[in-house]
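Can't paste images in this forum, so I'm doing it all in text. The chain is below; anyone willing to post the predicted C-alpha cells underneath?
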Amino acid sequence: GALLVSERIDREELCGALSPCSLSFEIVVENPLELYSGAVEIQDINDNDPVFPSSQARLEISESVAAGARFPLESAQDPDVGINSLQTYQLSTNPHFALDVQTRVDGSKYAELVLEKELDREEQRELHLVLTALDGGSPPRSAHVQIHIDVLDANDNTPVFNQSTYKASVRENTPSGTLVTRISAYDLDDGPNGDIVYSFSSHTPAKVRELFALDSASGELRIKGQLDYEETKLYEIYLQAKDKGVVPGVAHCKVLVEVVDVNDNAPEVTVTSVYSPVPEDAAPGTVVALLSVTDLDSHDNGLIVVQVSDVNDNVPKPSQDSYDVYVLENNTPGMPILNVSATDPDLGHNAHLSYTLLQGDPTVGHLFSINRENGTLYLLTSLDHEDQVEFSMMVQVQDGGSPPLTTNVSVSVFVTDVNDNPPTVLYPHSNSTTTYTDVVAPGTPAGHMVTKVVAVDADAGYNAWISYTLLQATDPSLFSVRLHSGEIFTARQLREDDTPQHTLVILLKDHGEPVLSASATVSISVAEMVKEVLTDLTDVAPANDPRKHVTFYLILAVILVSAAFFITMLSVGIFKCYKWRQSKELFNSSRSTVYRTPGPFHHIDAVRGGFTPPNFYHQVYLTTDSRQSDLLCKKPFTSSPLGSRQSTMRNGEPGMYHQIVGTTSRVPVPAE
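Text version of the structure:
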C-alpha cells in the first residue's frame, strides 16, 4: 500500500505557474471491493533564480519629463511559486529615480521607475542604474539587469490615454482574431511628434504576447491564441502609446481581460473495476462495478450536483467536558486564561457557536468574562489565594439553529499561591507596648524550654513553612532555638555569674521564592528571687503605659481617702481625749481598736506592665509599718512558662500576683 516516487518530480514542469500543484490518483482495494481517490500535492522549493529577459535595458527619457513620471521596467520571471517566487525589486542608489514595486491581480510583481528629480541633459547626458530582482526563498535568489538611461531633448507633449484602465470579458472558446477592446490616446503635438504608435509595455509577459495581438496604429487588442479558463482566469495586460518625435513621449494604460468559463469539458466516466459475470443469485446491493466521474470545468459547469439541506440535529461538541485552570494569584487584570473550544458538524447558522458564562454565582460574573464569539475566558481582576482558592463556573455553548441546541462545559479555576505574605509573629507580639519577659532560674539545666516563638504565615504549602534561627543574642552560647518549632531552650546549664538580662532576636523565614522574613525579640531574665526580678523590672518601665492616667486617679483617690481618714481620726482623737477623763475603760477600749484583726487578702497586680511571667505566684506578709520589710517569695510553679503565659492571657490575668496582709490598712500596691 506504499505510494512511491518513480522518477524525479519537477513542479515547474508539471504545473507551471499553477498553485497548488497536485496529481490525482485512484486506488482499488478488493475483497471487499472499495475505491479510494487521492491526490499528491507537489510542494515548491526555491530551486530557480529570477531571470530577466536580457542583461541590459535601455531607456530614453526626455529632460522635459516632470517629476512623478513612471517608466515600466522589464519584469523578471521566476518559475517558482508562493514565497519562493519573485517577491520584490531593488534599485541602486541614485539622485533622480525611485522604484515602485506593484502587484498584479495574479500576485506577480513588477517594477516601475518613478522620476523624483527632473533630469537635465546639459548636466548629465546618461545614467546607469542596476535593478535587482529577489525571490522570497531562504536564502533568497536574485538576478540583476543594467539599466542605461539616455536623457533626450524635450518633446513638449506626451500621449494621453482617455482612460488608465480598460476592462473586457471574453469566453474561453472565443476564436482567434476576435476584438477584445480598443485603446485610444491623443497627443497635442503636430506632425511626427503627434503620431501615436501602440505597443505592449516592456514588462508584459511573453505568454500574454502569444495570446493577444495589438494593432500599433489603431490600438485594437485582439485574440491571437487559444484561451483556457482552467489555466488562467484573468489577464492583466500593460500597453503603451508612444509618439514619433525625436524624443518620443510615452503613456501607459492597463487592460484587464476576464476569461469566462464555458462548459467545454464533458464529464469523464471511468470504470475502475467490473465484476463479470454476475451470479444469478446475487443479492440486491451487490457491487457490480465501480465508476468515477470527473469534469475539468469550474463551478456549476464542473458539478454533478446533489444538494442536501442541513437540519440542526447536532448539539455543539466541546473539545473536553471540563477544564481545570491554574492561575497565579496577584495576576494582571484582563488577562486571558482559557479558550473554550467546541465544534458543530452542522452548516451555516446551525454551526455558528456562541459562548455564554452562566451566572450561577454572582461573584463569578464580577471576576470573569467570556468572549461570545471565540470562547476566550478573561480574568477581570486580580485574585488572592488567601481570599479564595477555587472558583467554579459553567460555560454554555449554543449554536445558531432554530430551536438552538446547547451544551454546558464546567470550568474550575484554581488560584495558586505565591509567596506574598511574610511570617506574622503572634507571640511575643511586636506591636504591643508591653514588654514580655520570660524568667528562668539560675542552675536550670541544658535542654530546658524557656519559651516559644509562635508565628503563622498566611501563604500555603511550602511558602508557609517557617524556620526559626537565632539571629542575635546577649550570650549566644546560653540559648538555642528549634529550627521548625520556634521553641527556645537552654543550650547549657545556667550559672550564677550569667548575665541577669538577655535579649534574643529570632529570625523567622518562610521557604517561598523569594524568601520573606520577620523577626521577634524575646527578653529573658535569669533570677531566683522575685525581689531581684522586680528590682530589675523597675528600670524597664514600659513607654507610653496606657494605664498611667488610671494610676494618677488611683493616687488621687488614695490621697482623698487618706485625708478624710486623717480628719476622721483627728476628730475621734479629740473626742477620745475628752472621754479619757471620764472613763479609763473607754481609754483601754479605744486602745484595742488600734490593733485590729487583718482583713481578707487582696490580690494586687504587681506586674501590670506585663514584665513578669505568670508562673510566679507569691504571698507577701507585712506587719504594721512594714514599708521597708523584705518580700518572702515562694518558688515558681514548675509548669511550662509558655503554657502559663498563654493560660494567663486567655483568662485575662495580667501577670504576677501578691497577697499582702497588713494590720493597719489595705491598699493596692502598683507594680512600679
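Residues 548-580 form the longest helix (33 residues). The chain has a mean pLDDT of 80.
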